[in-house]
Fold these 3 entries.
Entry 1:
Amino acid sequence: MSSVDNCFPPASRDDWVAAVEKMLRNASVDSLRRHDEDGLIIDALYDGGSAQLAGDMATSVRRLSQDPAQRVAFGWDVRQPLHISGDVKAINQCIIDDVEQGATSLWLRADKDEQIDFGRLFDGIMLPAVGVHLDSGASTYQLVDRFIAHIDGDISKANLHAGLDPFVAEGDADPDVILAAGFALANRAATQIPTSIFAVNGWHWHNKGVTAVNELAIILSSVTDIMRRAMEAGIAPATIAALIEVTIALPADLYAGLAKCRAVRHGWAGIVAALGLDPDQYRLRLHAAPSLRMFSLLDQDVNILRSTTALLGGALGNADALTGFAHDILTGESVRGRRLARMTQLLMIEESGIAKAIDPAGGSGFIEARADDLAKAAWATFQTLESQGGASSCYKDNVFADLAREGQAKANARLVTGDAKFLGVTLQPDMVPVADIVTGGWGADGALIVRPAQIIEDFRRKALARQPRIICLLPSGTMDQPLQSLKKDSDQLCAIGGLSVITLVVGDDTARDIRAAKPDVVIYIGNTLEAIADLRADMSALMPDIIFVAAADITGESSLIDALDLLLGKQTDA
């Protein structure tokens, strides 16, 4: 394809618009426009030079990782998550297996007040060679103190990421205490400074429900407050900037994740530039992990697909560290699941060579514009948070928590109204019974991981307990296309609810068959129940508890949960 004879002929935007509208049978190209969860526009066509935000800022600000040479040579940090609980010997073996099979650092999550025997936990592990990122919510600083005591106060013996987040999503932290603990670490001798001290964790806020714009705004507000308070404590911006790491959540949409990686660097660059630092010299250390909010207990293998596309977005977005979760983490992660999550990244690094490209998505009008739109919206929300007193005030006044609740409500509404599609849940649903979630671990705490799919999972459990008898009643004769579509939609609805259905055709024996089946609900495939008015009257006299419903009334624009409740035999206002 190097010869000019094989090149595509030049095409203007008007040419592209004309070609698209021809395919749409003269409908406007704007008819393909959609919106993300924050209401930001996603167009079908973009120009190559769509990006506007960078201005005179160096192009590497939003594109480069914290250490580009390291990333090109070795790939990103494969950070393996592990919940510390139970048999320390078993956890130690798990850590050894993870490191031997490609993990370069560990994200160790511990419950509050968990007493950890670090000696046994890291038996056989060469700590300086393996990054240790500690996470215990509001009590992380106490866990860090115990870890430092384990290494005799010599931080040079470990590659420590302290993981202190003054504004953790659990909501019970004292930011002043955590900030003071972080600044005490920062004031150690130069040889005693950890790899990072503060870990601003937008991933946790995302899993509580915040949208992408609000997640980034919370991160920027948190970073700004840490910087501001550090300077008040006499710590130079250059010192503290090098000790901050940011964690973002990656959705299943790889382009959204890629744009988020670039957008958060925009915001970081704006903050450090305002402090007189060169954003190109003080690049953001970025850790990214797939959303657990998007995981489901239904058809858990689909979580592999969600995680893979999410990790690809982070890889293309030049994240410095990536964490992959086992697809079955909600039911107690298996060794196979952990290995698959890790190998996904290793294949991207070793086989695909993604890390070798300095900026694999650079120049894409779509990606550049999406990143700019997200960055602008996040910066505007960040400014609003600053006007409300900054991160400390917003955290204490539950502004962050309110953003999470608002986002959760919107996400749940999108699922209930059918606007959000979940493969294996609402799209091509799996009829297998819902598994039980584990009592401990990353995804167990419903206050921290708020999953929209749980709405359907809870319904499926109710349906299994009640096991309603449902008859789908077809009109006699050949059904036209609209009725066939109603039948398909009705079947889909029942499958989403895990409901079994018996199909009958209206005929001379219909009343007898219904009496024999003793159904709770009869779905008539039609727009109204007029055609079976006599049958309904007869059945109502004999079996008054039967609910008759027209398929058109429970499909289309109807509320998913209201429709499913009706199929359980529950009368609703609808």
Entry 2:
Amino acid sequence: MRSIASFMGVLVLRFDDSLDTVLGADMATPFGAQSAWRQLTDLVGRGRAADVAEAVTRLRSIRAMVPAPVRSASARSVAFAAPPAALVRLFGEDEPSIAAPVLSTAILDADDWLAMIPELPAASRSLLRHRRDLPARAVRALDSYGAADFALPQPDTRVDVSVELELELVTLAPVAPVAANDPAPVDPTGPFAIAELVARLDAYQRDHGDLNTPPRKLDDAPAIPAEHFCFETDASGTIRWVDGVPREPLIGMMLGAGPVRVDGVVSGAFRRRAPIANARLVVAGQSAASGDWQVSATPAFDTINGRFTGYRGVARRPRMDERAEPVRGARPAAEAFRALVHELRTPTNAISGFAEMIEAQVLGPAPDVYRERAAAIRGNTRELLDAIEDVDTAARLDQNALMLRPGVIAIAPMLSRAAADLEPLMRLRGAVVDLDRGPAGLGVAGDEIAVTRIVNRLLSLVISASTAGERLTVRAMQEGDTMALAIDRPRAFAALPGDALFALDSEDQGEGAILLGAGFALRLARRLAVELGGGLAIGEDCLTLRLPAALDHDVGQLSSN
């Protein structure tokens, strides 16, 4: 009859949650005591008990009959339900693993904490010291215990040597064999699973607002990329712990799925439960954890049954030589170009100087054939020095280190000097250049060396691309505050519309062509013109160089470092 009454009492507990019904149930059996414990803690913890003191007294009387796992599950289920002070004190008197969920989340008044703290064991007071939201009076009460709570218990050294200790061997029940490489089974059942889920949802809504509201907008500031991080996975390959980078992009992600991609090294090692060494991992997104990583990890196994439990590893950013894809935009720095220019200019000047000495017979008479070869060498070295100067100018432009000295350059004399310098090239190509020097007094405001270099490069470009008998016209004119120099395009450029001329670096334009290519010369001329405050336009019939005209007002410095 008693077992039937107990069973009926359990049935009443399932369908009637009133406090009188629970207190009237049979608690003499272990099963009845566990059921009553669960019901009473749920009623008191959620504020549905009329007489909290009587309920807590009954809980304290049956606590010894309830196993620790059941008490721990009850503590977790009411942790976020705002339990009263009496129930918090009841759990606080228990073992640390049972008291921790309630003591770490309970919200009480200062008076309740002051009344409870002296009755709690030292381990529970240590748990409260980790909280940062306790009232100031409660914190002072915890601090008043001083070093007494931190002292380790001393063993009892009073041993009666006359007493013989008898050791009883306990035979443990055999452990059921489990396959070493099988993941640990997960028990989906548990006491008050629905109530615990509801409590967690209530806590989330309390901390983060209503679930129907849109998520908070993240900061648009770019995250600073991290250089390394540590991680752990479970037996399924899902990342469960991360240190060194933000947790959000990685926690809960499975290796090889979603935004966390891995190579075949990780997949093969995971199947064999083998170590991973320098495998490739790519994290998508814009966080500090995104980008390429080199991963090394070791498998972890349970020490009791040898079951595979996951991986523990580290990730670091790959070095330049470890990247599989080509690095875009990698080119020698401007400092390297300038160092190369210095190394080339010195021997080239020496060669040109010795050739000039042979041609002028400074060291004594020389055969005509030697003098002709010396003249050819001097011409070639002059072209090489011009190319070296162009490279140096381009490198200085990249470093914003080009010095331009303000001045006024007369157009007519400059065009005459350029034509005289290029006369051997015109005879070689068989072309004729007509110069229109513009109105008298027309000048350019800017650096004389830079302006002369632009004009010489453009004239040399069109003459070297011309054919025998072709006539080109160079016209200088003034357009408001600008000096415009229009140079006819040779017939060889007719098939290259617009900016296609800037891609002539590898084109072979025959003897007398510019050493570094027509495209390089055009790009350099355009950059210098922009630096001087003008520009270079590519038209259908002519190339038009525009530079600031020399006016009556003062001209300031146009570029500096």
Entry 3:
Amino acid sequence: MAVPDSLLAHCFRNLSDGLFVLDGNYRLVAANSVLAAWLGLEQTDFAQPKARPRLDALLDCSCPLDSAGEHRFECSLPRTGGSGRLEISLMPVELDGQIYFTGIARDISDHRRRIEQLEHQARHDGLTGLGNRSAFEDRLRRLHEDARANGHTHALLYLDLDHFKVVNDTHGHPVGDRLLCEIAGLLLARVRDRDLVARLGGDEFGILLEHCTMHDAEALGQTLVQAIDCHRFVWNGHSFRVSASIGLTTITRERKSCEEVLSFADAACYVAKDNGRNGVQAYFGGVRCTGKRKELDWVNRLHAALEQNRFRLFYQRILPVAFRGEREYRELLLRLIDEDGQQVSPAEFLPVAERYDLMPAIDRWVLDRLRQSLASLPPSARRFKTHYAMNLSGASLSDSAFREQLIETVEHPAFEHIELCFEITESAAVRDMDRAVSLMERLRRTGCRIALDDFGQGMSSFAYLKHLPIDYLKIDGALVRQMHTDERDFRIVEAINQMAQHLGFRTVAEFVEQPAILERLAQLGVDFAQGFHLHRPEAWKG
């Protein structure tokens, strides 16, 4: 059917846009050269079968066309492979008793890009490129809603740079700005893709960690503090150094509001600064961040617990994933019995013990308890060696008196009947690398084994790993816990396991809480597994 000249004149008036005409059956009967080029057609091809699918793709709108009023929608711009956008406007026109649709297709790609740029600017810090306070508050609100509705646990780190004002005031804002950008990159390199790092203003940063326990958040906090402390910022031949204080809290069902979560983390950060800066302070349980008085109360309670022998040992089995000749071993875990006879989790007292130099005394208690128990074993119980693992704190590694006592203890005849493995965290090992390596080598010469604990929190791990004389690599539970559903976590665990095998280390996966996790560990060839799915901690009877 011929299209009247008057209608063609109406369609082709604006040749900078794509102009076209559809008949009542939505068949393309006319179009200008702009639209033809977008469709990849010649103007003589409109009646050909190949024009139909290309037109259908262009007019992929959510509502059916009818003859009542204008239709306006957006679709992908064909010639850009889907990255560009078109705005389509269709107007029904009745002519000689027939319905036609006159269409205008306008390229709005640049407009959309400008909008996206403005939206990005509205949610990102202009200096560092991190999320800004608006983005941070939105994510905090969503995590708080999830915790209240589903019982999930998330975490917030509130980080404030120490002595940044000195750099800014002494050397000028351009130097301070450059330093902030480097710190931003350092933080981003050490969190997961699903976590949010935001600049909250000045030299303050907020880090939101999805599905993260207090233990894992504190380990990450220590990694960040150490990384910033080791970072050297160089400007015009001058080297600068800053540190960071971090306050952290969990986002749980019990938190009443986002404001409460933020205030807890802020208060914890204040205490971290009050304690000498360059550290991490958690807000939890019995340790409240209303000042040092509460913490000093805990210090007194820990001294009393040591004097009254109110610590208890528990153990958790660590089992071979697949039988290849390996034997299971057991990790010794510490619990505190309070004044009322209630069991207290180490998450409530160990941070205070570490800050107030009580960890060497607690580690000595564990060694003495182990030695006494082994010395009292009857001869019949000494025929087979038992494998045990115990943790050594960073403070104990730095205590020369403790190190000498440790070597003397493991050489005691009572320890001939067990094979002992000492677990040392990644952060403790690298805090004083030379001293840690020296102690590890001495322990191995006595027949002990060494495990590097919580591996995977610090992304600098691969650089120094080859220098550490270790036997086991314990893969951090934050990577293991969701590896059966998170492909990225699975691939990271796979890479760590492959690297460990090449270096001659055995691998141990922590936080194995689902059968599906164990299946994937077996698929990767991980050596050992530990977690509630395999064994829940129970009292050690020695």
